[in-house]
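Input for the complex:
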Amino acid sequence: MSSSALFGGTGIIIFLVGLLGTFSLPHLLKKIVCINVMGSGVFLVLAAVGNKDVGATNDPVPQAMILTGIVVAMASSVFALALARQIAHRSGFWLLPEDREKL
Amino acid sequence: MNAEVLLTAPLLGAIILWVTGSKKPLPVWAAVCVGTLFAGFGLGSELTEHGEPYRILLGGWQAPLGINLVVDGLTVFMVILTSLLGLFVGWYSLAFKHAGSSLFWPLWMGVWTGLNGVFLSGDLFNIYVMLELIALGSIALMVVEGHLKTQVAALRYLLAALVGSLTYLLGVALLYAEYGMLDYLSLGEVVEPGPRSSVAFGLMVSGLLLKTPLFPLHVWLPEAYSTPSPQTGALLSAIVGKASFYVLLRIWFQGCPAVPTPSLGRLLGTLGSVAIIWGSVLALRQRSLKRLVAYSSVAQLGYLFLIFPISASASGQPRWLEFAYTGTVYQLLAHALAKASMFLSAGIAVEAGGTDALSEVRGLAERRPVTVFTLAISGATLMGLPPSGGFTAKWLILKGALGVGQWWWALVLLIGGLLAAAYVFAVLRFAFDQRDEPEAVAEPTRSSEWAALSLALCSILLGLWLQEPMRLLVLGGIGINQ
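Predicted:
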């Protein structure tokens, strides 16, 4: 198995784990962390896409995509965290109302 | 030059308004509206001169190093629609008493930049970045008012939007792994059906469906559209969701035209039909005006998805696809204008009545005749009554559906129209009721009512003006190169 396929496959599994967590874990912080896990999976896939055999030059476009993606992911995580903190502060729960009802 | 103005004018506006604290938004707003409207129409006339869609290489750089912009009929209509919304929603904001936070202006200009970026970009990754810009900007627009209920709706929307755009990005990454390109027009020439491109395509489509949203992924929508300020609700429902649908059209018909199977088209068409009927039924059951208008968005978005099953059967008969395509774009435009107008009118009604309850709309016809008139004519577009843009849209989709022998969508269109009539009249019935007790409530300004009315009139005018747009839309765009 080539290293690209290995890393790409791992990236997809990490993405799916994050996706599962985002929907199944009720805690807001966990949801936001899970979305970051999804993002890391996508970045790993992109890194595998840009990876060429030893000696050949790597494709720079996926690297540029990862760097841009990290900036976007950081901005949105910070925003989501600020929003979640406000909600937790005002409602007293790190949960969305629909998850609170299930408790 | 025009495309550059469309991208930089709102961005400059956002920066200026941010730095100056939006104390006097009027001159900047006016300049950006005039600039982008001129540029939008300029783009349209350039396109007519070219006679076919064309690319703009920013800074003269070729792909993959540079970023390509693509201009065709759809692009022109989307950027003009965005400018019109910017014009009238901005006017309303200036005129409305509770204009809300001053952050509205720089944030909306930022979202505007992202929207024009999506509509002009020819590059799938660039589109991802612009979609994120739109999502973050519009969610920030929601929460500037600071109510807890809105914040919860905003976080739910943010989580859905992030999952949607990461899913889309994974699809883009897999497509890049296979073909080494991001430019959707070039991809359209090389992408072949197969398991890998199907997975990539499926991921991109599901991400976009979550963001648009299509039933049953719409659970975040009603709260997100109905709890923020009326201006924000209007912009979210009119254009923000449509940007994701626009990308869906691009990848379905131009990025990966060989990949979608007829059964996938039928699935989206069926989900769209369920959205039309279920969304309308839920709209009928609402007791609050803004929630009614929000659920009606779920229904009206459903119409946009009928193009996919029609296109699956239209191979070899581009005429029917052209009808369905023009109808879908018309539905998008007409719904955007009418729904924005409805949200703004709902804002006026809430302001005049004190609460958001539907029953509190009573007596509005006497006190606010212009607003009730606005609700009635934007309602006519949602129902699809002639001569509104909504009628033209539904008629064109119907023609496409019957042309390829899929008569059952006609039934959906009919039931959807009747249900829309039911929920629009549910509002109007209350508006014409008598109300005894005179109460001291806020008086919305006349000018804000005129802004909402102008949007509704635009949605009617759209129905009267068909030939020229239709020619521009099918000009080498989606449908022709099938």
